[in-house]
Amino acid sequence: MDLWSPPHDAPHLLEWWRPLILVSKRARLDRFPWPVHLDEFRLAGRVNRPGRADIWIYDHHENGGSVCVDATGQTYKFIATPNAKGVGQFRPCPVRTALWRARLPDVVTPIWFEEPPRDARWDVSPESPDGPDGTADAADEGPTRVVRRGHLTLIAG
Q1: Residue 128 phi, psi dihedral angles, 5° rounding
Q2: Among residues 41, 42, 43, 45, which one has the least CA distance to residue 55?
Q3: For residue 79, what are the CA distances in angstroms to 1, 22, 35, 89?
Q4: Quick count: other Cβ atoms within 10 Å of Cβ 10?
Q5: pTM of the model
């Protein structure tokens, strides 16, 4: 294994941060409650592994926890091997495990993915001549048609 570090006097390239962007997206899709804020990390370097995927290492500014990820967004955990030939090895792990190991819950405010409470005024049945506030609408002469698409409701009259 060979470690490459970004030069201190050169601007960072987007491709150096793309793996962490992919981790942030995967965490959001998995509804991991502690978001990955890119500006809270520094690029420690990239481990070049001949014949295998290179591993990018990002350290959190506040707690020093590391996220290890390859170019496809696959996260890894580092397992030290003190009595072996090398210093350790990277093993694939779920994004949740990698972010827990980086101790994100210690320093990042969680967000919760919950449905907002429903209001009875939003539910207008097509049979009801009443408007959303429960009163009859004089301008609405024809039948009301309600179409629901996921979280959106279209009311056509």
Answers
A1: -80, 130
A2: 45
A3: 14, 23, 25, 5
A4: 7
A5: 0.69
Q: Which pLDDT band holds residue 124 (cuts at 50, 70, 90)?
A: low
- 69-96 confidence digits (pLDDT tens): 999 999 999 998 888 787 889 999 999 9
**Domain range summary for the chain, segments of one domain joined by +:** 2-107, 120-156
Contact 107, 101 (CB under 8 A): no
Six-digit token string for 79: 């397992």
Average pLDDT, the chain: 84
Q: Bridge partners of 66?
A: 59
* Residue 73: Cβ within 10 Å count: 16
Beta strand extents in the chain (DSSP E only): 2-4, 41-48, 55-60, 66-69, 75-80, 88-93, 145-149, 152-156
Q: What type of residue is 78?
A: F
